[in-house]
Amino acid sequence: MVQLKCPVCGQEHIESKVEFCLNCSYLLTTYSPNLLEYPEIQQRENKRLLLAREAWNKYSNLQKQLETANEEESLLKQQLQAASEDNQPSLNNSSVEQYLSKISSNIQYLPNMLTILQQIHENLVSQSLGNGLVSAYNINPHSLSEQAITVYETEYSFKQRLLGKKIQPILESDSRGNYWIITEGNDEYLVPKANIKINEHNYLATISTFFNCLGYNSNSSNTFTLVKPAKVYKIGEQWELIKIGELQF
Questions:
Q1: Which of 25, 65, 167, 205 has the fewest CB atoms within 10 Å, measured from its CB?
Q2: Do 129 and 188 contact (CB within 8 A), yes or no?
Q3: d(Cα 129, Cα 66) in Å, to the nearest integer?
Q4: What is the pLDDT of residues 14-68, one digit of tens each?
Q5: What gap in Å lies between CA 249 and CA 247, rounded to an integer?
Q6: Which residues pair with 233 in a beta bridge?
Q7: 4: which strand partners?
């Protein structure tokens, strides 16, 4: 079995058994080879790794401080208790109480700091996936074709929306579709198919449902920039739209 070491915290895992580090939650899988060919994505990946290491180091240091502070607090409580029971004149109870109060005050903020740093680290992991996809799409959308699933909104979903029913759009694999679903990590994203022809008909029918189209009007060209992919959730052999994306015209 090949051992894979996390580049952030050093935890070892069995390659292909896990996708995220079980210790620090860093993404262990890499982008597909065709995406890593682009310098922008490689630079983004290097920056993500650097930020993740910094966040993990701060988290680890604060965790050690919290453990040390807890140990000191426990020891001082024991000494204070012993002094109270034995009435030892050599031990200044007032000084111990003051020091204990100071430590307790410092301890209070440490768990919050740990939580904040952990959230920052997890956000770095989740955001990097979508951002890498955005960069690759805007550079050359055709580079994603091999890993993309072409999808089309189901007839039932489309008709229900035309009737004014408030339902989440459902998509299914269909070569006629104008959209791609691309998997990155544990998430699945929806993007317009390369060379999609946008007109007033399909804009009103589906595009405006899946994407917030900034700067679009009936005279807009087909040129746009992917700002944010839409997000979908797989249900059996279909996908449900759970979060709209964003296009800039």
A1: 167
A2: no
A3: 32
A4: 766 677 788 887 877 666 666 666 677 777 778 878 888 888 888 888 888 878 7
A5: 7
A6: 240
A7: 13
